[in-house]
Amino acid sequence: MLDFVIFAVTFVVILIGAVLYLYPSSRQASGIPGLNPTEEKDGNLQDVVNKGSLHEFLVGLHDQFGPVASFWFGRRPVVSLGTVDQLRQHINPNKTMDSFETMLKSLLGYQSGWSAGATETVLRKKVYESAINTTLQNNFPLLQKLGEELVTKWQSFPESQHIPLCAHLLGLAMKTVTRLALGDRFANDTEVIRFRKNHDAIWSEIGRGYLDGSMEKSSSRKGHYDSALAEMESVLKSVVRDIKGHGSGQSSLMDSLIQAKLSEKQVMEDAMVFTLSGCVITANLCIWAVHFLSTAKDVQEKLLKEFTEVLGDGPVTLEKIPELKYCQQILNETVRTAKLTPIAATLQEVEGKVDQHVIPKETLVIYALGVVLQDGDTWPLPYRFDPDRFREEDSRKSFSLLGFSGKQACPELRFAYTVATVLLSSLVRRLKLHGTDRQVVEARYELVATPKDDTWITVSSRK
């Protein structure tokens, strides 16, 4: 099992700060083809900024230099791997102690992630994953209810009305994550709106402000971020105290973490990581899935057929989800086509080798997942949305290797898959989804790939 989380929000900048803090700078040449530093102090940072995102920079880097390429973050050499074969060579012999949760906590200023020993880190991870699984099991009817409410709302719209997917599905994700993670207090829309305001302020700065250092150069942005983080922490600590004193009103994620005898600080940190990342991952998986389905009527009909055969007239259940193979293929293909999480990274703990290239110790190694997910040698017709490609064993193995399925997938992604399956099981059986004419959907690649502008669909009733 990979000890790092290749997913979603495993954005390289999270690792960069930790690497530069924990290790002295190195100018050791790797001998790997790539770019020389544009600036002595910043390396190729401005080149990344000019491209618009690290993913877009890596696309050009690998086009120019091949599957193994190098560049510079500041004075530190970085190696990027851009095909499944190179990733397989690197993943198999290498491990790291630092999961995404640990790195995100460090970025947020939570030092317990770095100071914990290996045994404690493994135990904390097991507690965290078990708490998420227990929360889904105990709150599945609530998850169904929230999905049904949204579908009922859409069903009430005139067929000509355009529905903004980003607005509606981020709202669903916020309601779902806060209710399941934090309890009945967030049945109140005012609490959810307050949460969303702080969530957006924190997440947007993590996505853009830390990569180019722009947040630190703006006292107003830094102040806004610090204020939002402090208020979010205060709310989470308040929820912990309420649950300890009176219970949450349901079996929430926080209930499970508290029952595991974690400290108030540890519960707050784990809840922060889950709510920050869980909302964005869940929302964007649902957004892209519904968007792609609206452009593929044949895929909608095949999915409807599977729901009818597996579920009949009844609702989806946790026990039935593993039987929905085609739905799983659709979600896999959504992640691949959208490049939902385009970047992952790890630190080279000991000297390693990929092909003929030696990777020195303490080199930052990037997994260019967005490049890999649209490599034509691995995925025929890579820009086409085609869930049937995941009928093939080779495609499923490659996808699992990248950390997007199976035991290697992080718990936030598994949570998002469950929410998306519940939503689609109601949506596709009650409504037909239609794309809008002349709509061009472009992605913004930060921590998670999200549409640059809201994405619109229309719906019509199946009855």
Characterization of the model:
The protein is of the alpha+beta class. 56% of the residues lie in helices and 10% in strands. A four-stranded mixed β-sheet has the order 1-2-7-4. A hairpin with a 2-residue loop joins β1 (68-73) and β2. α2 crosses α3, α7 (118-138) packs across α12 and α10 packs across α11. The chain starts with 11 loop residues before the first helix and ends with a strand.
Mean pLDDT: 85
Please state the CA-atom Rg, rounded to the nearest Å. Answer: 22 Å
Helix residue percentage: 55-70%
Number of strand elements: 11
Could you give the order of the helices and strands? HHHEEHHHHHEHHHHHHHEEEEHHHEEEE
Describe the secondary-structure layout.
Elements: H1 12-22, H2 45-51, H3 54-65, E1 68-73, E2 76-81, H4 84-91, H5 100-107, H6 112-115, H7 118-138, H8 140-155, E3 163-164, H9 165-182, H10 189-212, H11 219-246, H12 253-259, H13 264-294, H14 297-311, H15 325-338, E4 344-347, E5 352-354, E6 357-359, E7 364-367, H16 369-372, H17 393-401, H18 411-430, E8 431-435, E9 443-445, E10 449-451, E11 456-461
Parallel strand pairs: 2-7
Antiparallel strand pairs: 1-2, 3-11, 4-7, 5-6, 8-11, 9-10
